[in-house]
Amino acid sequence: MRTRLSAAVGLALAGALILAWAAFGPRVERPGDVKVVEVPTPPPPIALVHRLERGETLGDVFEDHGLGPAATRAIAEAMGEFESPRRLRPGVAIHFVRRPGDSPARIRVDLDADRILHLWSGGEGASRWSARLDSVQVVRDTLLLAGLIRSNLFDAELSGDVETLGDAERFDVAYRISQVFAWQIDFWRDLRRNDAYRLLIEREVRPDGSVRDARVLAADFRNDRRVLTGVRFEHAAAERAEYYDEAGEALRGQFLLAPLDIVRVTSGFNLRRFHPVLRRTRPHLGVDYGAARGTPVRATGAGRVTRAGWWGNYGNAVEIRHANNIRTRYAHLSNVARGVAAGSQVEQGQVIGYVGDTGLATAPHLHYEFLRNGAQVNPARLQLPRAEPVPAELRERFAALRHVVLSRLRSLPMPVQPTQRARRTQD
Q: Which of 174, 226, 380, 401 is surrounded by the fewest CB atoms within 10 Å?
């Protein structure tokens, strides 16, 4: 009897607890009872781009975009860690990001093709901005190219990875091959129709497809009856990367063979030459390079300037004294380059003046003379000193590199002249 009573009391208490839980416990919403509350989506940030115009200051630009003097000072201070705001050039793109109704909180400045400056507000009003400089990421690739000369380097018939080249790069290919062999070939006296070359180029390509830098890793050049080879090799014993032939001898010599990069030769070294101004036969102890007025003239070798300025029939001219009792002269200049004066030191390849027609000249050109022991000589016939060869302790390393790059280079056939090409096709 007592057991039944206990069970009944237990059931009653359990029922009471269930009723109390249903009345006062947490309520579980059914799907149909949920109320949907729409939270407004914040408006997207606004991005604006401004290109700096000539005569415009950053203060003007920032004011136009809602930034006050305090913010302008803070941004200029943060920017100054990497680039002076005064040095920004017209055309630089400045990107602003802001929320509607707010002043910009982030700014991006495209300093140039390779550097991007990021600026952002520290969230403490306009007084604190930070900056970070990023470099544009590049991808490296290699190209194999070959060229068959028709009349000059710049109109060569190209083959190989030509489809990847832009118009500017086609011009650059000619320039770079001329820089490799500038001490072995005067490309305006020695070049022959159906000469040919091939080269292996390494490029650094930006995301937009433009090329930041390129270098020739190896090259062959067939010039008349000789074939020249250049292999790029960089090591601590040299101040810069050098080009060497297959035997490890340096291509760079004491003197460049030509004082201009892009020219056409109008008159060679000639002991019996009819002078166009004096109207009589007169020895022409030098080489005349026809080029547009203002074309840069470079020193063919390092040395000290002994004369710079007006020099009678030479017009504006520069004379440089080099080692081994050698002097070079550059005449008929329109102007002497800034900083070039008697007593100044110049390096090989340094611009020393600009092509003109001053003095006894009929048209813009450069008159170049090469003197040894005080006598004018034909530089094309001289055997001049070269830079140091590959050091003995690096020969093994050079040989390994040479094998890799020349194997790759010579996987592309050297172009042949059209008659040979037709004969091979018939065979």
A: 226
What are the angstrom distances between the C-alpha of 288 and each of 154, 260, 337, 359?
21, 11, 20, 14
- 140-180 pLDDT, tens digit per residue, is 999 999 999 988 888 889 999 998 887 777 778 888 898 89
Q: What angle do CA 26, 32, 38 make, to 5 degrees?
A: 90
d(CA 182, CA 171): 16
Q: Distance of CA 125 to CAs 42, 128, 266, 393, Å?
A: 21, 7, 68, 62
Would you call 274 exposed, middle or buried from its count of C-beta atoms within 10 A (0-12, 13-18, 19+)? exposed
- The strand pair at 226-233 and 211-223 is best described as antiparallel
Q: pLDDT tens digit string along 348-396?
A: 999 999 999 999 888 999 999 999 999 988 776 777 778 889 999 999 9
Distances (CA, A) of 356 to 97, 108, 288, 349, 395: 51, 44, 12, 19, 46
Q: What is the pLDDT of residue 298?
A: 93
Query: Which CATH architecture is the domain 46-135 placed in?
Result: Roll (3.10)
How is domain 264-381 classified at the CATH fold level? Answer: Glucose Permease (Domain IIA) (2.70.70)
